[in-house]
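Need a sequence for this fold. Nothing fancy.
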C-alpha cells in the first residue's frame, strides 16, 4: 500500500503582524494542504482556516479517496468560506488560495489548486512545478507580454485571478499523478516561492531527509531572504509505493536481459525477404502478430493526433481571446468564452468604471464585449481610452479620434 509522510512549518514572517496561512497534514487520512488567506481585518486568517477545516471534514465524510471526492471537498470549502463571509460584514470579501494533495484508494495521488500557492515535485533529484499560478503576472508571462524577471517586481504581482470563497462557486485545477518511493511533494504559499527561487528550494529538499526538518529549513531561509509575507511549507514524502518502483525497475532489468524480446517490440515492419533459415527457425510465429500490432498502434496514434488537434483547436477558439466588458458599472477583462465545457473567466478587475471610458468605447461596451488577442492589448485598450479626469467633453473628442483601431483592432463580439 502507498504510504506518505508529511512535515509542516509555518511562520508569520518578518513584516506581517498576523499569520493568515493555514497548513494541514494528516498522514493517516492521506490529505495535505496549504491555504493562504486574504481580506482585511481578520478576514484572511478566518478564510484559510475555514477552507482547510471544511476541506478536511468534507473529504473525510465523502467516504472514498477519489479525485471526485477531493473536488467535492474543495467545492465544500469554497461554500463554507463564501457563507461565512456572507454572515459577517467584517469578513465580507475575504478569500483564500488552496493547494491540496490526497492519497487515492487506487494508489494514485490527486492534487488541486486555486490561486497562487504552489505544488512542486522532487523526483530523481529534479524539482518540477506541478501547478500554474492563477495570477495576473503569470498570465502576462505566459503571453510573453512580460518576462519572469519583470513579473517579480511588477506593480500588480499580487493580483490573483482565481480565489476560493469569493464567489458561490469555484473552478479548481486538478490532476492525478502516480507516486513512486523517494518522490517528495512540496506544498507552499507565495511567502516561500516569492523569496526563494526553485534552485534554492530544490537544494534544501535534496539535502534534508526528514520532511519536517526540510520544511523548517525552507521557512528559515525565506525569513532570511526578507520574510515579507507569511510563509507556509508542507513537505510530503512517498515512503512506500506498494512495490511499484521495484516492479518497474524489475521490468527494465528483464528487458535488458532479453534484448531480442525488447527489440522485437520496437522493430520496424521489415519486408519478407529476410526470412533466412535462421530467422524462420527462431521466430516464425512471432512475426505475424507483431506486424498487426505495429499497424494498429500506428493507426491509433494517427487517430489520437487528429483528436488532439481537434481538441486543441476547440481550446484555442474557447480560450485564446480576451474581452473587455461591463460587469454592472465596472469594467472587467475576461478570458475566453462560455463554450462546451469551457467557462469564461474574469482575469482582471481594473478599478475603472464604464463611465470612466471615452463615449465611443462606452457605447461599444453597451453593445457587447470588445475582443482582443491578448491580455496586454485588452489592458492597453482600457488605459488608452480613459477619459482624463480633469478634462471635459471637448477634449474627449480628439481622444476618440485617435483610437488606434489598426493596432488594437477591437471588434464588437456578439455574446
Ligand atoms: Mg501569501
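Here you go.
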Amino acid at each position: 500500500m502507498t504510504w506518505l509522510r508529511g512535515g509542516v512549518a509555518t511562520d508569520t514572517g518578518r513584516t506581517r503582524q498576523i499569520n493568515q496561512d493555514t497548513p494541514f497534514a494528516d498522514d493517516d487520512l492521506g490529505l495535505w494542504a496549504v491555504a493562504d488567506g486574504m481580506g482585511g481585518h481578520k478576514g484572511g486568517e478566518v478564510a484559510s482556516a475555514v477552507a482547510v477545516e471544511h476541506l478536511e471534514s468534507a473529504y473525510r465524510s465523502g467516504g472514498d479517496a477519489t479525485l471526485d471526492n477531493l473536488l467535492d471537498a474543495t467545492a465544500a470549502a469554497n461554500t463554507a468560506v463564501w457563507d461565512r463571509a456572507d454572515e459577517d460584514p467584517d469578513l465580507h470579501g475575504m478569500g483564500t488560495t488552496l493547494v491540496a494533495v490526497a492519497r487515492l484508494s487506487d494508489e494514485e495521488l490527486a492534487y488541486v489548486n486555486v490561486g497562487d500557492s504552489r505544488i512542486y515535485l522532487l523526483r530523481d533529484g529534479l524539482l518540477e512545478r506541478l501547478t500554474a499560478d492563477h495570477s495576473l503576472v503569470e498570465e502576462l508571462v505566459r503571453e510573453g507580454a512580460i518576462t519572469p524577471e519583470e513579473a517579480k517586481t511588477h506593480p500588480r504581482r499580487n493580483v490573483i485571478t482565481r480565489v476560493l470563497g469569493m464567489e458561490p462557486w469555484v473552478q479548481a485545477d486538478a490532476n492525478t499523478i502516480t507516486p513512486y518511493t523517494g518522490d517528495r511533494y512540496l506544498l507552499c504559499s507565495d511567502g516561500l516561492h516569492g523569496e526563494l527561487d526553485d534552485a534554492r528550494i530544490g537544494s534544501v529538499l535534496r539535502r534534508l531527509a526528514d520532511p519536517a526538518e526540510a520544511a523548517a529549513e525552507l521557512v528559515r531561509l525565506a525569513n532570511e531572504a526578507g520574510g515579507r509575507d507569511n510563509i507556509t511549507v508542507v513537505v510530503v514524502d512517498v515512503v512506500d509505493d506498494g512495490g511499484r518502483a521495484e516492479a518497474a525497475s524489475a521490468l527494465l532489468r528483464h528487458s535488458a536481459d532479453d534484448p531480442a524480446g525488447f527489440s522485437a517490440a520496437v522493430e520496424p515492419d521489415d519486408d519478407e525477404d529476410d526470412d533466412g533459415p535462421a530467422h524462420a527457425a527462431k521466430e516464425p510465429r512471432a512475426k505475424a502478430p507483431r506486424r498487426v500490432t505495429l499497424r494498429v498502434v500506428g493507426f491509433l496514434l494517427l487517430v489520437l493526433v487528429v483528436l488532439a488537434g481537434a481538441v486543441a483547436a476547440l481550446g484555442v477558439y474557447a480560450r485564446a481571446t480576451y474581452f473587455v466588458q461591463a460587469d454592472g458599472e465596472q469594467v472587467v477583462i475576461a478570458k475566453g468564452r462560455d463554450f462546451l465545457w469551457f467557462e469564461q473567466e474574469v482575469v482582471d478587475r481594473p478599478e475603472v468604471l464604464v463611465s470612466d471610458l471615452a463615449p465611443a468605447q462606452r457605447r461599444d461596451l453597451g453593445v457587447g464585449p470588445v475582443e482582443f488577442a491578448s491580455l496586454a492589448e485588452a489592458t492597453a485598450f482600457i488605459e488608452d481610452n480613459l477619459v482624463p479626469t480633469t478634462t471635459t467633453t471637448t477634449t474627449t473628442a480628439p481622444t476618440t479620434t485617435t483610437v488606434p483601431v489598426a493596432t488594437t483592432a477591437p471588434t464588437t463580439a456578439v455574446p
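For context: Residues 36, 189-191, 229-230 surround magnesium ion (CB under 6 Å).
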